[in-house]
Amino acid sequence: MxxxxxxxxxxxxxxxxxxxxxxxxxxxxxxxEHLFCVVDLHAITVPxxxxxxxxxxxxxxxxxxxAGLDQTVGPxxxxxxxxxxxxLGWLLTCSTQYGxxxxxxxxxxxxxxxxxxxxxxxxxxxxxxADILLYQAEEVPVGDDQVQHLELTRDIAQRxxxxxxxxxxxxxxxxxxxxxxxxxLQNVGKKMSKSSETDAGVIWLSDTEKVTEKKIKRAxxxxxxxxxxxxxxxxxxxxxxxxxxxxxxxxxxLVSEYNGQGYGTFKTAIAEATNAYLAPAxxxxxxLLADKAELxxxxxxxxxxxxxxxxxxxxxAKDVLGFIARG
Length: 327
Ligand code: TYM
Prior knowledge:
Blueprint lengths: L3 E5 L7 H13 L5 E5 L1 H4 L6 H17 L9 E3 L5 H10 L4 H5 L2 H7 L7 H15 L5 E3 L5 H18 L7 E3 L34 H9 L16 H14 L3 H8 L3 H28 L2 H30 L6
Parallel strand pairs: 1-2, 2-3, 4-5
Helix pairs in contact: 3-12, 4-7, 4-13, 7-8, 9-12, 10-12
The protein binds ligand 1.
Ligand 1 binds next to strand 1, helix 1 and helix 7.
């Protein structure tokens, strides 16, 4: 059975990009050897309001369960509940080079133009490497924007193994066929993101059906009216990708059905498909959030199991580094 790990930051409500690139795929084929984590240690690499962070961590966990992830199948938990993440994170930071971290595009984007950039934001990728390597994960299902971090994770693992002996499995990123990079509906040159400039370009899972429909109908396209992919067709291509990811139908199939019918019909079909697709999760999410004590209990159970699985690798890493055993 393939060992899988992935994570998501509890920074705001997830959007359709997070859903397509990550959450829905995690739930589609959950196995006992898969671990999924709400990465609150990563969230604090930029300033967070404590009360909001607390609320958003539970909110994000509820979306994972609403997607169909099941605590009795494999661990779903919160990163800070398993201290091995922070511990291995430090050990790997010491095997990561300054130059490598400086080349990360996410760091460059998030730090650009800022006067005060926290050191945590800079070493973020070595903590991410720890998340993955702690469980000897072979596959990491992510969206396109995390591929560079995965490459660095592989480099860190290889360097550590060649210096200290075989401790870590070398993982690989796994991208979905459709939906690996959902673009902002208003600004199709940018990925749909929690920090998008315009709310109109992002479909939040928490949006009402009316708002979802409005955003899709206002999505930027072009003036030639043709439903196809290609140069100058970035808006339409993004909608086709989204539609394909939700419906499981190929882009070619969607093009042959909708081309010639005009953008209005096309967008109405996508809006209806999106709302129908999200309806069960939206309802389940509201139910789950109504019982926060039960939600927390599920997360603690996940953390206990994750902790048990993490222990041998952490112990091995410390041993090969030359730390003396406690007895
Ligand atoms: P985060 O929280 O930004 O995003 C969570 C997941 O959503 C994917 N994603 C997208 N997919 C398609 N289209 C988009 N527009 C889009 N936007 C986001 C991301 O690729 C990701 O898979 N560093 C990670 C969290 C993390 C992690 C890990 C992931 C920490 N440790 C270990 C995997 C393994 C992040 O910030 O994701």
